[in-house]
Design goal:
Blueprint: E1 2-3, E2 30-31, E3 36-37, E4 42-43, E5 48-49, E6 54-55, E7 60-61, E8 70-72, E9 77-78, H1 114-125
Parallel strand pairs: 1-4, 2-5, 3-6, 4-7, 6-8
Antiparallel strand pairs: 8-9
Length: about 130
């Protein structure tokens, strides 16, 4: 995972001189207890990832993530809460910026790859050769 601590990363000033310590400010990021961040995720500065939140692998987090919320993608967008068809924002309100996905791409009955893992385990347990 990558944490970016500068909202405007530049090596030079508008005049073309190299930036010095006084030319930029650190943007603090808060990750609360119990939050999970997937591998390869990028978290921009000044963002809060609340308790029990989950950031998917490879997500680019540009906004706060609410408690228990799951975000995925680039930019990271919330998944709908269980039993809901609408994503929510960090405060738990319906996220008006990101409408619900089309029904055809909404949710898979089980995560991708799960069936393949289950099949290979069943074959392995049978004592016979896979196939």
């Amino acid at each position: 995972m990558i944490f970016v601590n500068d909202k405007y990363p530049r090596a030079t000033t508008p005049a073309g001189a190299l930036q010095g310590r006084s030319d930029w400010a650190v943007a603090h990021t808060m990750v609360e207890r119990g939050a999970t961040i997937g591998s390869g995720a990028v978290v921009l500065g000044g963002v809060r990832i609340a308790a029990r939140a989950l950031v998917g692998a490879g997500a680019v987090v540009t906004r706060d993530v609410g408690p228990g919320q799951t975000v995925v993608g680039n930019p990271a967008r919330p998944l709908p809460a269980a039993g809901s068809s609408r994503p929510t924002d960090a405060a738990g309100r319906a996220d008006e910026h990101h409408p619900p996905p089309a029904e055809s791409s909404f949710c898979h009955p089980e995560p991708r790859g799960t069936a393949a893992v289950r099949v290979s385990l069943e074959r392995r347990g049978s004592g016979g050769p896979p196939g």
